[in-house]
Amino acid sequence: METEDLKNQFQELQAQQQKKLLERRRKKEQANKNENQSREKSAGKFGVNDDLNLKLSEPPSKGFSYLSEELVEHLNDQIRAMKDENGRLYKLLSERDFEIRQLKKKAEDYKTSLPQDSVTNETAATKIIELSKKVRELTSEKESEKTKCRQLQRKIQELQSQPLPSEAPSTMGSMISLRSQVSDSQSENPSAADMKALQDRLKQAEAKVTDFRNQCLSLRQELKVANKVLSQEIGENVNMQSLLNETSNWRGRAQQIIALQQKVDELKVQLESQTDGMDSTMGPNEKGKNRQEKRYREELKRLDRERKEAQELISEVFDSNNAVIVSKIQSSLFVIFAFMSHLFGAKQAGGLRRKDLPKESEHEEAADSIEKDELLTKLEIQLDEINALKAALQRTIKAKDEDMKVYSSTLDQTKQVFLQALRQMKDKQLSDQGL
What we know:
It is a single chain. By secondary structure, this protein is an all-alpha fold. It has four domains: 1-29 and 68-111; 147-234; 251-281; 287-434, Orthogonal Bundle (Helix Hairpins), CATH 1.10.287. Helices cover 86% and strands 0% of the residues. Helix 4 (169-187) runs antiparallel to helix 5 and helix 8 runs antiparallel to helix 9 (362-434). It is elongated.
């Protein structure tokens, strides 16, 4: 840095010197011009031209005759500039040397002023600070390890309280021994290595316990699934022990379903064969009648299905409306109870106020009466809303009942019509067969 500063200063000095030289040249050129102009002016005053430069007042020119004065002056100027630069550089060097000497003196004075035991005291102080930092770090680590041990003890207690499978008695014993070891080690202030070993053992035991817990959960889930499958296969209210004690002739639900499906298929085949035989023996009129019977039966089934769907839809709508209205009634009842309790509290507060302040102002009485009136009006509004909701609920229930009655009556009528038609067709068939 100092060398760079010196270089910068030297460059600044060179620039200043060049500027000065340029100014001197310019001044000399200006002076020469002025002299030439004055000579030209004074040339024709007395009729004598002084072009030969025969002036006695000027001193004789010094130096060599083969060098011009301008060159000599220029060289002299350069010499002067170099001398100035050298002088400035010497001055800067002397200043720097002086600063170096001063710094050396200060360093020597500082060394001499310090006592001999100061270095050892400083090193001792730094060592004490480092050791205190280490002690703090170790104490913090010890506290964290203690907290970890406490947490692990709590986890061990929780795991001990939970039921474990019969396959893991050794892990339980190891956990108990680890717990006793941890408690003994905490009471005896163990070292860091013992604490780490105990922590590793605790982590291993905890990992084993978590594995066993996961196995227990998976087995429980599998048992639940198996119970569901068995209940679907056997039935819900069936004793397992009785099934185990029975003989092996028992058939499961799936087998029974397959057998029933086979029976249904056989019956369908028999029915089709019988209907084909009947169709072959019957005439064209009887075939048409059988088709009409089938159509009527299908229509009846469709009507029953529609009735069931309509009943389910109406019941769902009714349940949803009923739930909404009941929730509204409950909320309004809660509001009424709150208003009543508020009124009761206001009355009690008013009575206490009258007891405490027998000379109450008319303004306060008017305010209390206004509050009571507002509460009463709110209660009346809530009661009106409740009554309206009840009436609406009753109306909806009545309308639904009427709709159901109308629908059931229409269904009954259609059934009767279909049954009458079927009877008439059967009577016709019997009469035709008798003929």
